[in-house]
C-alpha cells in the first residue's frame, strides 16, 4: 500500500484482522517519509509484516519511475530504522527453498540444513553430511520475492505502458466499476508477465496493449486460490490469497484507493488443494 | 405599422430597386454563400410573390442566411430573411409550411426584409422592413424566431439607437404579428402562384445549413437534451414571460429551462442493479442504529444498565488495537450493535465477542453466549444412538437360508455428545455473516465431529449449509464443522492470567466416577492483578480456563465399555474383546500454558509487550503459534481472548490425508478355505503305498471284515 495513503489503506485492509498498532503506525508514517527522501524513491510501498517468534519484520518497498522494474526492499524491526535487503539471486532461491518453519525474528539467526553431498576422494565416492547454514536474512529475501511473484496484485488500468518501455502510474485511473471489481480477470499480477505470450492470437486481439500487459489472476493454479469478497456492503472489494494466507488486497470500486498488504508468518500454504 | 396595405406593386418596385443593392451587398459581405446563393434571392424574389413552394423555401433559407450575414437591405427578399440564417440548415418540408405561413403576411406587408447589419446605413424603409421581417419569424416557427433572435441579439452594434429600437420593435411586433398572420393567410392563398423557377440546388449553402441544424439537434449524451430544443424552449419562455432586460439574465433563464426539463438519467437502469445490494446492507445496518422504543422505556434502560450481558466490545477492541489486532473502529462498532441486538432478543446471561473466521465467499462473526439458567433452548436431537442394533437385526433374516457369512464388523458405539453447559458444549455460539444480518445459532458439537475435524482441513465457504466433502467423511455440514473448529480453538487458546479464575469449592471431585479433574472454574474475587512484565516474561503466569478436549472428542471421559458389557453376553462370538479402554486423561483445568507442547521446537505461544517505547502503559499480548490468529491480551487487571483467522491449526509439516482403512477380511484364514497345492505323482504314490500298508495291516488284523472300499481315491 502506498505510504502516502497509509492510514486510509490500513483502515480499508482491516477486514483481515491483522494490522498495525498505533505506535507502529505513527513511526511508519514518519520513517517512510525519510526513507523516500534518503533513497530518492518515487513511491514507497508499505509491503507488510512478517510475524516471527521473537520479533516481527516490517517490510517496505521503494519504486522508481518504472513501475515494473525490480523493487528495492527494506526491512525494519521497529519501524524506525530501515535496512536495505539485497535483491534475490538464483543461489539464494535454491538455498532458502529448503528451509521450513517459522521465522525467528532475528536477522542473524542461522538455519541449519543438513544435506547429503557426494564427495569424491580419489576413487571413493561417499556421501557426507554437510551442514549448510542459511541466514535468516537470505530467507527473508527469498520469501518476499516469492510472495511478490506469486500474489502481489494490482487492478487493471492502474498502470499503463508506453511504447518506449517503462510503465507508469495511470493518473486517469478512476477505479474499477462494481461489476468489474467482482471478476478475477480485472486484476493483474504486479510483475513481469509470464503467461501472456502463451495466449492465443484470438485472445490477444482483444487485449489493449497499453493496459493489458500483465498476467491476470484468472489462470492462477490452483483454481480457487483467491477468495473474492465484498465488504462493507459493496463498498469495498477484498481479495485474499489462499496460497499465501495473510495477503490481503483491497480496492474501493470507483475510487482510486487500492493496495495490498501481507501480514503473516511467511509460509506458503501447501495444503491448499486439500482444503478447497 | 402593418404593411398589409402596401400594394404589390410597391413591393415589386422596392424589390427591384433594392435587388441590385442587396445583390451587391450580398456578394460583398457573405463569403459563405457563394454564387448560386446570391442568384437565388433575385429569382426567388420573383418567385416569392407568386408562390411559396417548398422548393423555393430552400432557396430562401440560404437567402435569409445571406441576408442575415449581410444585414443589408434586401427589400423584396421577404420571408427568407428572417427564416433561417446560416445556423439553421432547414429541411425543405418543415420550412415550406412555415414559409407559406410567412409568405402571407410578408407578401402583404413587406417591403424589404433585410435584417439590419452593421456597417451599411439603412434607409428608413429598412427599418420598416426589418420590423416586418422580424415580425414574421416569430409566428412562422420557433426556429425562425430563434434564429432571428439570435441574429438580432449578437448585433448590438447596429446603428446604436436603431438597434435598440429594432429589438424593442421586434419584441413588440412579434406578438402583434401573430394576429396578423391569421389575417394574412387568406391573402397568401390568393397570391399563390406556381413557382416555376429556382431550380437551383442550394448545394453548399444548404448542406452547411443542414449540417448546422443537425449539429444543433444532436442529443447530448449526458442529459438527453439537444441544443435546438433547448434554444426553442428558452426563447418560448422568454417571449411568454417578457422579462425586463432579458439579455442580462439570459444565462439564468437557460439554467431554469434546463432544470425544469425533467429527464431521466441515460443509464439509470444499469446503476440501479449494481447498487442494490449496497443499499440493502446499508438499510439493514441502519436498522441496527435505530433504537427500539418500547413502552416503559425508562424501566428498560434501568434493566439494561443493571444486568448487562453485553461485553464492552469497544474497550477490548481498543486494547487489541494496541497489539495490532482488530477489525477497524467502525466495523467493530457495528458488531457491537449487532451483539446488542442479540442480547436484546435472546435471554442471555453472558455474551462475548469470540472473533471472526474468514471464509471463501463470506466471513463469520462469532459470538460466544451463555444462556440464563433454565432458559436454554434445547433442540430435538435426531441422532440415532441405536446404531449398534444393525448387526442384530440382520441375523434373524437369514436363519433359514444358507447362512451367509455374517459380518463381524461391530460398529463402534457412537460416543454420546456432552450435555449442554458442560465440556465442549459449555457455551452456545451464534454466527452471522455481516453485522446487520440475523444471528444463527450453531448446533451443539458431538465428539465424532471433533474427532473427524481433527483429521481434515478445509476452508470455510461462508454458507452454513454447505456440505463438507472430505475423507474421512465429516458427519455434518459446514455449520457443524464450524462449531467443531470453534470448540477446538476455544479449548486450545482461551487463556487467562494466573489467579483470575479459581476452582469453585462446591464442586465435589469424588462424585463423578469417571472424572479426573474439576471441570468448572469461577472468578476469583480476590484477584489483584499481575504485573504486565510478569505476564510477558514467562508463560507460566497464564493458564487455560477451558477444558482440554480429549482425543475421544469430549472433555469428560466417557467409558463406552460399561454399556457394552450387557450386550456382549448375548452375542455368540466374542472376538478381540477389549479388556478395558484406557481412560483418556488430559491436562487438568487451569494448567499453565508453559506446559503446552511445543511444535518442533517452537514454543506454543509468543508473548510481546504492545509497545516498547512506552512500557509503563503497555499491555501484554499473547499470540498463539499453534492456532495462528488467536490472541490474548491483559493489562494486569483485565484480559480478553480473540480469534481472527481462517480457523485452522498450524502444522509445519504438510497435511497428509488419512489413509482409508484396510479392506475388511471376509473369511478368517484357515485350513478349510486355504488352497493347497495338489500333490505331485511321487507324493501320491507314496501316499497310496502308505495306505495300502495300512490296509494290509488292517486286513491282517481283521480277517473277518471284508471292507474293501474303505479308502478314498486320491486322484
From TrEMBL, chain A:
One of the GO BP terms on file: axoneme assembly
Keyword set, alphabetical order: Cell projection, Cilium, Cilium biogenesis/degradation, Cytoplasm, Cytoskeleton, Flagellum
Protein location: Cell projection, Kinocilium; Cytoplasm, Cytoskeleton, Flagellum axoneme
Cellular component terms (Gene Ontology): axoneme; kinocilium
Chief place where the protein resides: other
PANTHER family cross-referenced by the UniProt entry: MITOCHONDRIAL RIBOSOMAL PROTEIN S18, RADIAL SPOKE HEAD PROTEIN 9 HOMOLOG
Family, per entry: Belongs to the flagellar radial spoke RSP9 family.
Protein known as: Radial spoke head protein 9 homolog
Organism of provenance: Cebus imitator
Automatic annotation (TrEMBL), chain B:
Keyword match Transmembrane: no
Keywords associated with the record: Cell projection, Cilium, Cytoplasm, Cytoskeleton
Cell compartments where the protein resides: Cytoplasm, Cytoskeleton, Cilium axoneme
GO BP, sorted A to Z: axoneme assembly; cilium movement involved in cell motility
GO cellular component, one term: radial spoke
Biased composition (Basic and acidic residues): 1-14
Region (Disordered): 1-164, 372-409, 505-528, 696-715
Acidic residues compositional bias, start-end: 373-387, 393-403, 505-514, 699-715
Biased segments, Low complexity type: 53-64
Polar residues: compositionally biased ranges: 138-154
UniProt name for this protein: Radial spoke head component 4A
Organism: Cebus imitator (Panamanian white-faced capuchin)
Amino acid at each position: 500500500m502506498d505510504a502516502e495513503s497509509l492510514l486510509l489503506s490500513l483502515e480499508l485492509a482491516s477486514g483481515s484482522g491483522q494490522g498495525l498498532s498505533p505506535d507502529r503506525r505513527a513511526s511508519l508514517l514518519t520513517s517512510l517519509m525519510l526513507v523516500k527522501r534518503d533513497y530518492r524513491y518515487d513511491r514507497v510501498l508499505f509491503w507488510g509484516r512478517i510475524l516471527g517468534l521473537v520479533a516481527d519484520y516490517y517490510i517496505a518497498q521503494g519504486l522508481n519511475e518504472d513501475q515494473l522494474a525490480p523493487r528495492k526492499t527494506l526491512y525494519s524491526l521497529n519501524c524506525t530504522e530501515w535496512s536495505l535487503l539485497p535483491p534475490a539471486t538464483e543461489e539464494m532461491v535454491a538455498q532458502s527453498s529448503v528451509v521450513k518453519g517459522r521465522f525467528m525474528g532475528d536477522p542473524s539467526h542461522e538455519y541449519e540444513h543438513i544435506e547429503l553431498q557426494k564427495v569424491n576422494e580419489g576413487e571413493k565416492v561417499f556421501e557426507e553430511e554437510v551442514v549448510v547454514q542459511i541466514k535468516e536474512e537470505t530467507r527473508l529475501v527469498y520469501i518476499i520475492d516469492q510472495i511478490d511473484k506469486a500474489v502481489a496484485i494490482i487492478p487493471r488500468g492502474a498502470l499503463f505502458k508506453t511504447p518506449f518501455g517503462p510503465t507508469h502510474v495511470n493518473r486517469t485511473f478512476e477505479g474499477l466499476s462494481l461489476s468489474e471489481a467482482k471478476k478475477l480477470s480485472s486484476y493483474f499480477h504486479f510483475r513481469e508477465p509470464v503467461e501472456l505470450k502463451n495466449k492465443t492470437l484470438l485472445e490477444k486481439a482483444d487485449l489493449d496493449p497499453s493496459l493489458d500487459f500483465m498476467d491476470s489472476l484468472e489462470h492462477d493454479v490452483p483454481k480457487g486460490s483467491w477468495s473474492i469478497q465484498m465488504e462493507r456492503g459493496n463498498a469495498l472489494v477484498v481479495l485474499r490469497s489462499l496460497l499465501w494466507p495473510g495477503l490481503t488486497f483491497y480496492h474501493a470500486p470507483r475510487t482510486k484507493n487500492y493496495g495490498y498488504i501481507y501480514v503473516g508468518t511467511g509460509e506458503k500454504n501447501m495444503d491448499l488443494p486439500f482444503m478447497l | 405599422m402593418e404593411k398589409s396595405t402596401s400594394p404589390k406593386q410597391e413591393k415589386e418596385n422596392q424589390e427591384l430597386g433594392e435587388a441590385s443593392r442587396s445583390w451587391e451587398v450580398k456578394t460583398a459581405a457573405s463569403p459563405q454563400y457563394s454564387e448560386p446563393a446570391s442568384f437565388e434571392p433575385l429569382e426567388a424574389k420573383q418567385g416569392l410573390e407568386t408562390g411559396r413552394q417548398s422548393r423555393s423555401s430552400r432557396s430562401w433559407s440560404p437567402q435569409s442566411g445571406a441576408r442575415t450575414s449581410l444585414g443589408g437591405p434586401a427589400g423584396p427578399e421577404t420571408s427568407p430573411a428572417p427564416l433561417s440564417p446560416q445556423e439553421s440548415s432547414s429541411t425543405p418540408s418543415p420550412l415550406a409550411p412555415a414559409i407559406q405561413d410567412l409568405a402571407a403576411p410578408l407578401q402583404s406587408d413587406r417591403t424589404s426584409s433585410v435584417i439590419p447589419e452593421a456597417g451599411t446605413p439603412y434607409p428608413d424603409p429598412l427599418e420598416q422592413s426589418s420590423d416586418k421581417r422580424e415580425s414574421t419569424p416569430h409566428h412562422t416557427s420557433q426556429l425562425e424566431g430563434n434564429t432571428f433572435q439570435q441574429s438580432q441579439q449578437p448585433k448590438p452594434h447596429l446603428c446604436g439607437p436603431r438597434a435598440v429600437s429594432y429589438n424593442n420593435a421586434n419584441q413588440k411586433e412579434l406578438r402583434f404579428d401573430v394576429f396578423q398572420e391569421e389575417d394574412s393567410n387568406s391573402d397568401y392563398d390568393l397570391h399563390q402562384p406556381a413557382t416555376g423557377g429556382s431550380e437551383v440546388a442550394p448545394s453548399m449553402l444548404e448542406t452547411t445549413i443542414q449540417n448546422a441544424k443537425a449539429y444543433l439537434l444532436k442529443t447530448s449524451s449526458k442529459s438527453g437534451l439537444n441544443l435546438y430544443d433547448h434554444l426553442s424552449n428558452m426563447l418560448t419562455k422568454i417571449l411568454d414571460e417578457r422579462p425586463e432586460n432579458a439579455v442580462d439574465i439570459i444565462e439564468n433563464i437557460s439554467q431554469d429551462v434546463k432544470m425544469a426539463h425533467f429527464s431521466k438519467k441515460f443509464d439509470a437502469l444499469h446503476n440501479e442493479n449494481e447498487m442494490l445490494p449496497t443499499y440493502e446492507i446499508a438499510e439493514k445496518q441502519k436498522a441496527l442504529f435505530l433504537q427500539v422504543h418500547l413502552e416503559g422505556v425508562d424501566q428498560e434502560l434501568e434493566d439494561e444498565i443493571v444486568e448487562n450481558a453485553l461485553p464492552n466490545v469497544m474497550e477490548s477492541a481498543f486494547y487489541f488495537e494496541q497489539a495490532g489486532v482488530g477489525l477497524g473502529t467502525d466495523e467493530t462498532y457495528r458488531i457491537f450493535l449487532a451483539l446488542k441486538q442479540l442480547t436484546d432478543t435472546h435471554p442471555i446471561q453472558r455474551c462475548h465477542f469470540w472473533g471472526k473466521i474468514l471464509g471463501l465467499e463470506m466471513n463469520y462473526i462469532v459470538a460466544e453466549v451463555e444462556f440464563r439458567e433454565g432458559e436454554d433452548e434445547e433442540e430435538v436431537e435426531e441422532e440415532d444412538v441405536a446404531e449398534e442394533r444393525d448387526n442384530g437385526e440382520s441375523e434373524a433374516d437369514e436363519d433359514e437360508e444358507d447362512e451367509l457369512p455374517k459380518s463381524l464388523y461391530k460398529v463402534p458405539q457412537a460416543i454420546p455428545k456432552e450435555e449442554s453447559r458442560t465440556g465442549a458444549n459449555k457455551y452456545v455460539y451464534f454466527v452471522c455473516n455481516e453485522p446487520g444480518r440475523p444471528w444463527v445459532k450453531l448446533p451443539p458439537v458431538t465428539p465424532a465431529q471433533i474427532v473427524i475435524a481433527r483429521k481434515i482441513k478445509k476452508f470455510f465457504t461462508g454458507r452454513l449449509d454447505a456440505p463438507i466433502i472430505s475423507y474421512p467423511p465429516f458427519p455434518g455440514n459446514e455449520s457443524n464443522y464450524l462449531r467443531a473448529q470453534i470448540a477446538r480453538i476455544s479449548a486450545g487458546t482461551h487463556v487467562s492470567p494466573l489467579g483470575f479464575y479459581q476452582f469453585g469449592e462446591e464442586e465435589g471431585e469424588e462424585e463423578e466416577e469417571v472424572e479426573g479433574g474439576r471441570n468448572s472454574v469461577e472468578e476469583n474475587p480476590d484477584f489483584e492483578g499481575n504485573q504486565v512484565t510478569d505476564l510477558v516474561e514467562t508463560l507460566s503466569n497464564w493458564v487455560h480456563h477451558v477444558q482440554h478436549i480429549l482425543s475421544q472428542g469430549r472433555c469428560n471421559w466417557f467409558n463406552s465399555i460399561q454399556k457394552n458389557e450387557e450386550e456382549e453376553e448375548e452375542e455368540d462370538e466374542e472376538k478381540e474383546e477389549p479388556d478395558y479402554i484406557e481412560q483418556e486423561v488430559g491436562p487438568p483445568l487451569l494448567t499453565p500454558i508453559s506446559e503446552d507442547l511445543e511444535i518442533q521446537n517452537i514454543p506454543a505461544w509468543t508473548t510481546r509487550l504492545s509497545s516498547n517505547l512506552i512500557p509503563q502503559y503497555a499491555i501484554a499480548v499473547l499470540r498463539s503459534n499453534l492456532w495462528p490468529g488467536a490472541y490474548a491480551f491483559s493489562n494486569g487487571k483485565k484480559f480478553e481472548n480473540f480469534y481472527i483467522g481462517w480457523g485452522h491449526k498450524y502444522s509445519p509439516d504438510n497435511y497428509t490425508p488419512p489413509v482409508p482403512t484396510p479392506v475388511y477380511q471376509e473369511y478368517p484364514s484357515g485350513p478349510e478355505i486355504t488352497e493347497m497345492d495338489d500333490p505331485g505323482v511321487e507324493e501320491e504314490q507314496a501316499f497310496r503305498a502308505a495306505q495300502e500298508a495300512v490296509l494290509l495291516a488292517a486286513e491282517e488284523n481283521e480277517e473277518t471284515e471284508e471292507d474293501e472300499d474303505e479308502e478314498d481315491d486320491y486322484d
